[in-house]
Write a structure and sequence with these properties.
Blueprint (H helix, E strand, L loop, with lengths): L3 H6 L3 H11 L1 H9 L5 H16 L5 H24 L1 H34 L2 H29 L5 H22 L11 H4 L3 H11 L7 H7 L3 H12 L5 H16 L5 H6 L4 H15 L3 H15 L3 H29 L2 H23 L7 H17 L2 H11 L3 H29 L5 H18 L9 H9 L8 H10 L1
Helix pairs in contact: 2-7, 2-10, 3-7, 3-8, 4-5, 5-7, 5-21, 6-7, 6-10, 6-21, 7-8, 7-20, 7-21, 8-17, 8-20, 11-12, 11-13, 15-20, 15-21, 15-22, 16-17, 16-19, 16-21, 17-19, 18-19, 18-20, 18-22
Length: 489
């Protein structure tokens, strides 16, 4: 039996996964943590720019509001990017969208780079919004692309690489943010432009790699191009089983044509998928991990960790997260998705309760802040080893091709709305340690829902998974039964 590495290296699959990663979710990860290290310098830049312009010192509330805008405009851009997924991907295909997306990322980097010389915090806001757009569009297309190139037996491992590249991006953001590298006041605008280098690499290399086979077969109806793409990715073979699965899915799509996001919301046959997606993603964004990624410097400062040690603590988070994601990728096809999700969220809930206690005791002894930091690191490990990776896989599996684009628009919209809420609200809540109780409750909700409701998706075709969701009943009732009753009436 072939090992995973042998399967990935028979063709260009591993190379494509890497190139997609550096221009896809890597950018999301970098921009999540890359802003944390230079945050004090950007606040001082806002202060000095305001003073140069108006000859008066801005109030602390004004600086906090502009800083919150800089953080949250990234999410606003991400929202626009997510909403445009269906339109842009349908017109251009997966590969061309990724290339165009990288061009926009380079334009954003140019605006960010020149903002310091122009003494304009407005340019930072514009650049962050463009970064957000490329993250919202690129992150969705990246995950979709992975789902459409991967064979069923290793689909979980392949799609989980999107989460691995998020953690790699976070780690790079933390490394480049160190004062020994680019984390100095005179270089804050440069540290925020590093991902543009990876966008350039993607623009140069991606045109020589194949389009997604599933897209070519199901949406373009080109079976020869599909087979050629499969052989290019996974080595020589007839791939009859894979193409038969696509043929069955194509027949299902012809019976039920592609839907818009609004049509998908009205469709009772996918109501459990939509509910699952909504609950888990809501809990994902409000689990505390988004806040830790964006505001790690402020959180550890509030926890009592010495200022000069914070960057090294956040680097420790990045390294542990990266290792755990890789371990999760190797584990997911053995354990399945469900245990990783409900177990990870359950342990995270316990960690946040303990963090709340230690934050209230931080002045009692010099070692208590380090206990708080350790618990936060432990919580990120449970997240990346469980729900952080497995949910990426689940999202790519629970919708058939005709519903996938509309579903990704809805997933992306929800993701970036919650990201914006966290970015705007958390700076004002950071001094209230009890906000971690909210994170604990959300993690507990996700754990219970996954344990009792979510079906296992490991090793099943997309049509089989769809049927499993249709079979879900609560108190002896299902959404399909309600639909039949309505039809009879």
């Amino acid at each position: 039996m072939e090992t995973l590495l042998q399967q990935l290296t028979r063709g260009n699959a591993l190379f494509l996964i890497i190139i997609l990663g550096i221009g896809g979710t890597f950018q999301i990860g970098y921009h999540s943590t890359g802003l944390s290290s230079p945050s004090p310098y950007i606040r001082r830049f806002i202060n000095s720019s305001w003073y140069d312009r108006y000859e008066e010192t801005p109030s602390p509330q004004t600086i906090t509001m502009i800083w919150s805008l800089i953080v949250s405009m990234y999410a606003a851009g991400g929202l626009f990017g997510a909403v445009s997924v269906k339109l842009v991907s349908g017109m251009l295909g997966r590969k061309k969208v990724m290339i165009c997306n990288s061009f926009i990322a380079i334009v954003a980097a140019a605006i960010m780079l020149t903002s310091k010389g122009a003494k304009s915090y407005e340019m930072i806001i514009v650049a962050r919004m463009l970064y957000g757009y490329t993250s919202g569009l690129g992150g969705s297309i990246h995950l979709m692309y992975l789902g459409e190139i991967s064979p069923r037996k290793i689909r979980g491992t392949v799609t989980l690489t999107s989460a691995t590249f998020v953690s790699l991006g976070k780690l790079f953001g933390q490394i480049f943010g160190l004062s020994e590298i680019l984390g100095r006041e005179e270089l804050w605008n440069i540290v925020l432009c590093v991902p543009a280098f990876f966008s350039v690499v993607q623009i140069i290399v991606l045109p020589f790699l194949p389009e997604a086979p599933r897209y070519l077969f199901i949406e373009k109806g080109d079976d020869k191009a599909c087979k050629k793409a499969l052989q290019s990715l996974w080595g020589q073979g007839d791939y009859k089983q894979e193409m038969d699965e696509m043929l069955a899915e194509q027949a299902a799509i012809e019976a039920a044509p592609p839907k818009s996001p609004l049509q998908l919301l009205r469709d009772r046959t996918v109501r459990w998928q939509l509910l699952t997606m909504s609950i888990i993603y809501c809990c994902n964004q409000l689990s505390g991990i988004t806040a830790i990624s964006i505001f790690s410097f402020d959180i550890f400062l509030e926890a009592g960790v010495p200022r000069d040690k914070i960057r090294y603590v956040t680097l420790g988070i990045g390294i542990s997260e990266m290792i755990t994601y890789i371990f999760c990728g190797l584990l997911i096809e053995h354990t399945g998705r469900r245990p990783l999700i409900w177990g990870g969220y359950g342990f995270m809930s316990a960690c946040w309760v303990l963090v709340t206690i230690t934050l209230n005791l931080k002045d009692s002894s010099y070692w208590v802040p380090y206990i708080s930091a350790s618990l936060i690191i432990l919580s990120t490990i449970f997240f990346s080893g469980g729900p952080g990776g497995a949910t990426h896989t689940v999202y790519s599996e629970i919708f058939i091709q005709s519903n996938r684009l509309a579903a990704f628009v809805l997933i992306g919209t929800q993701r970036w709305l919650f990201y914006a809420v966290v970015g705007l609200v958390f700076p004002f809540l950071i001094n209230a340690s009890y906000c971690f109780v909210l994170f604990a409750c959300m993690c507990l909700l996700a754990s219970l829902y996954t344990f009792f409701i979510l079906p296992e998706t490991k090793g099943k075709t997309l049509l089989e998974i769809s049927e499993e969701f249709k079979a879900i009943t609560v108190c002896g009732k299902s959404f399909l039964e309600e639909k039949r009753v309505e039809t009879k009436l």
